[in-house]
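Supplementary Data S3. Sequence and structure tokens for construct A.
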Amino acid sequence: MEKGMMIKNGYLNKKIGVFLVLLVMSIVSSANPMIYNIADFGAKGDGSTLNTKAIQSAIDDCAKGGGGTVFFPAGKYLSGTLFLKSHITLRLESGVVLVGSKNLGDYPITVPKVRSYTDNFTDKSLIYGEGLEHIAIIGQGTLDGSGTSFSPSEDLRKRDLEKWYKSRPYMIRIINCKNVLVKGVTFINSPMWVQHYLACEDVNIDGITVNSRLNVNNYDGIDVDGCNRVRISNCDINSGDDAIVLKSTLDRPCKNVTITNCVLSSLCNAFKLGTESNGGFQNINLSNCAIYDTDFAGIALEMVDGEILDQISISNVTMDNVGTAIFIRLGNRARPFNEKSAKPGMGKLSNVIISNVQATNVGKIGCSITGLPGHPVKNITLENIRLKFKGGGTPELVNREIPEIPAGYPEFDMFGILPAYGFYCRHAENLTLNDVELDFIEPEVRPAIICDDITGVEIYKIKARVSGNEPLIACKDVRNMFIQSCVVPKGIETFLHIRGAKSEHITLLGNDLSGAVNAIRKDNDVEVFLGSNRMK
């Protein structure tokens, strides 16, 4: 019996021993993944040696070994185009600067298999990957694109626009890849777009910094183009062109995107959907962001190349010193994304909710929400909005005729200075303004809100003022309008001015209109239902 027990215990001890050895091996293996130090491949961090071949050799060997980490020790590494491989992580430690070569010849022309309108913009980049999976660029290091070394002349731009674009490489271009991670790194001095993610799935961009505010255009901070399942968080973007822009330059929608906890500043737009919209936008969420020193729009939603923009939610955004706070445009440029594509039909823009937005020092032009005749933007809700404009609008601006410009490039200033200092809304269906406060610094004689050719307008708890005798809200050809719980400040000449032969079914309920000299002014005999309003 004792002998049997000894044999059994010995067998168990052997099994436990084998298990412990395997466990230790597993721990050691997981603690020491395959790491390929670029210095071991001859890379020199002296800032002058061209390290393209050495770094590429490390990437290639890592890929042959089944994947792992290509490690950059502290130093300044000059390089031309690097081609990523699947299951590769580039790790740039603190103290690392990967510098793009100043010689355009070090960026070979690369034509992707996935074609898009961006083929007109670029065929060169510092880091390139296509058709890959599980790739990452991480660490506390810096990528410097040497952008000031690529300054094509204005004469070249006039003679050959495509060549002018392509004389400036992108920093990162990732195409048709799955499971992409970019985390922690800093991007500076990009020659053109900082990073372009085209037709990718499962992209995670976290905690990066972009400082690329050069004085030539096309310095977008982050371009997400026709991608699915994208997360952008905790980023600080200071860019010469749009800070974060979602595009669809091919026949794939940009969808299932969430952007949160970012700080944005731009010489153009801070957050934009467009201008290219060939595949459309679906299920996009932006939240908890701070926007400052932005020359164009803080928020720009633009559909001009067909397809559908649907289910967009924007919330908890603060802005200071922006050209305008909100710009929403449905146009009809109808540009195909390549020569073989048919001209796209009229697009659709609907189901947008923008809430909890505060902005100060908003420019003189005003905010706009516009569609086209017969093609309204639909189901637009603005809720809990506080905007303070710089003001200064003059009387001659009030009666300006605003052109339609259906094929025009969509930009916040495309109509010039608007006849409303707050919101100019035209060609819409089911527009809701709830708890919106509009104010200004310099005297402002323009109406706070203009609604033109809109079916279904709901206005609740509007707080605004004007300096002159123009109405607080001016309407033309508005159907099914409901205004409730508004309080008019004292001294307003007219609260609501209604004109247009198509205006009908106007209801005011539960408003305090006693501060206005005239609660309502009508240019026709449209019937207005007044229910329980306090009048002067």
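Construct B, processed identically:
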Amino acid sequence: MTKQYDAIIIGAGHNGLVCAFYLARAGLKVRMVERRDIVGGAAVTEEFHPGFRNSVASYTVSLLQPKVIEDMRLADHGYRVIERPISNLLPQEDGGYLKLGGGLEKTQAEFRKFSEHDADILPEYYDALDRVADVLRDLALKAPPNFGDGIGSLVKAAMQGRGLAKLPLDGKRDVLDLFTKSARSFLDSWFESEAVKAAFGFDAVVGNYASPDTPGSAYVLLHHVFGEVNGNKGAWGHCVGGMGAITQIMAKVCKEAGVEISLESPVAKVITDGKKVSGVRLESGEEIASSRVIANVGPKLLYERMIDDGDLEPEFKRRMKGFTAGSGTFRMNVALSRLPEFTCLPEPGEHHQSGIIIAPTLDYMDRAFLDAKAHGWSKKPIVEMLIPSTVDDSLAPPGQHVASLFCQQFAPLLADGRDWDDEETAAADTIIAAVEAHAPGFRDSILGSQILSPKGLEQKFGLIGGDIMHGNMSLDQLWAARPVLGHGSYRGPLDGLYMCGAGSHPGGGVTGAPGHNCAHQIISDRSLLGKLKLV
């Protein structure tokens, strides 16, 4: 080892880039090491068919923290998001449809096609979710208490709990419901129409290998309403240039701040000296020295593949063995000769610029999960289609389009010795058939495709079990318990080891929050250490 750094970050995904920026701004000498030949992690834009580009994995914007956008001055460097005119379209099995979003009155008018009651109660439902979401938004950019650190952690927990404590009784009830109930039981208490419940319930199974009947799935529904686009809470949008435009801008900002970024530099091992980290060893054999190693990879990848067993306490290893990862996600990008023509709405319209959800009821979603548990994937999978080329002509040739197919309920591991390498083409065909059932001619319009099974997502992006969240977003793996109680404040079990990825609070999505919080924790620890040395 020769050159010494203040911090080494493993993985140049968006959270790693955010963390690097704040550390460099604070004066630390930072080096990032990235396995692939491009920065961005799962937020990248790549050509997957000649002339067709798309966001390969992560595909839509809402959760990116406004503070991160402002601090990194992303807009000054070309960051631009086009908001969806409506949130989603849900084709129904009877040939009808439901549109969600585009304003309260517009959504209420849609709901009245299915239920007067549901239309009337919608404002109250939105208020209830917003009230809880506002409290949790306030926690997103705060490091959780590190239970086990003594009275300080208890004081911090009490301070962070003040927002919840101030909620009125019905708000506290909503919190309890959202953290413990299934999405179905929560939505059943509000709505009567199956189409309406499906419109909201879809968010509960995104990146969640579970049924809408699974206890705790209501929280995942809430997690997806935290965001905003251009100041509009709960909105979603398309980043011009794809998700890779965000991370390319972030990389530029980081380099301007002095961060060194090394591509095609996979890490073989975190090097330790006793119970302290001392750097990393790359697969090339190069060793890089640093007293701080920050992992922007998931906890499973970090602790089971990058750190020697002997460096971890048996109890910690047991806990991490029980850390659940595997989101049941299958991802496709398709090049299209023309826009899909949906039976329910065949003409071009605002739905083509929004999310199109193939999952008309909660029962459909439940059957998809049970099918996947039994057979590996569903015969009728849950599919969300976005067609970003309708608003961004940089992604496809004139008159042609790209579509993202984000699909749920595909087993992270197949049973009976089967391998996703042998099954992914058949699974992809099932996905295309699910879309074809609502958009006849879709199959014939496909010019080329990119297929990423859960195994493919793991191999390409290091997402264990294809888990886009780096670990289940369940009550036992949230806040101070993400990834495990006692290490929820971005500090690992070795001195100088930190975690800045989605496997830490507040979890998955392109938020930048874990990277922001981890950096500020490191800066705080560094300041405290400096004060102790002076004393």
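The two ends are 31 Å apart (CA to CA). DSSP finds 17 helices and 22 strands in the chain.
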